[in-house]
Amino acid sequence: MKPSLETGIGLGLLVAGFFWRGRRKPQSNIDQSSDATAVATAPPPAELSRRIPPVMLVNLSPLAVPADLETAPALGGRDDVRARVTAAVGRLQPAENGRAAANGSNWSLMLNFGAEDPVWTIAIEARGDGSPGALERLARETGWRIFVPRLGRFADPAALSELNAS
Predict the structure, then answer these.
(1) What single DSSP character describes residue 118?
(2) Pairwise CA distance, residues 154 & 166, whole Å
(3) Domain boundaries of the chain, sorted by first residue
(4) Measured between alpha carbons, how far apart are the two ends of the chain, in Å?
(5) Percent of the chain scored above 90 by pLDDT?
(6) Which helix (H) or strand (E) holds 35?
């Protein structure tokens, strides 16, 4: 029981660090060469409320348990991971500190790839009514698992809308 508790607390602190570090600086380094149509149809993340708690994408089998997070293999090389995410959710708008945003008409995903290559995990803050669907598509098309640090468990991609953000 104690190792599981320690793992859960450690993962929670890790995810909190990703989001805390990303919020300290304003996002002034957004790619200005983005497609005007895609940007115009996507509402700014500030206008979308959070629908699900922050999550992490990890490279683990469906039989894995939370304790396996410590030994999870990398998602892949930075370029390969970004290409797989782009194929699943569309164009990414680069931001600071290894982060990027993907937006749709009623959803926004802020993805934190971290600074390392290879990418070990992606921390995601999802906003908007359509965010559970976008995150489900991302998980299904990449084969990566969704872990919810706040709950200390993996989430079924089809049941993301049932998670409470508060």
Answers:
(1) S
(2) 18
(3) 2-162
(4) 26
(5) 13
(6) none
Task: Give the tens place of pLDDT for each residue, 96-138.
Answer: 777 888 888 888 889 998 888 899 999 999 888 888 888 899 9
HSE, side-chain direction, 13 A CA sphere, residue 154: 21
Q: Is 68 exposed, middle or buried (0-12, 13-18, 19+ CB in 10 A)?
A: middle
Task: Compute φ and ψ for 64, nearest 5 degrees.
Answer: -70, 155
Q: How far is CA 34 from its chain centroid?
A: 21
Q: What is residue 50's three-state secondary structure?
A: strand
Task: Give the residue from 122, 79, 115 showing the smallest Cα distance to 98.
Answer: 115
DSSP string, 31-82: -TTS-HHHHHHSPPGGGSPB-S--EEEE---TT--GGGGGGPPP-B-HHHHH
Confidence of residue 41 (pLDDT cuts 50, 70, 90): very low
Q: What is the DSSP string of 99-121?
A: EEEEE-SS-EEEEE--SSSSB--
* Residue whose entry in the numeric block shows the structure tokens 């468990």: 153
Q: What is the phi/psi pair of residue 127, to 5°?
A: -130, 150
Q: C-alpha 51: how far from its chain's center? A: 13
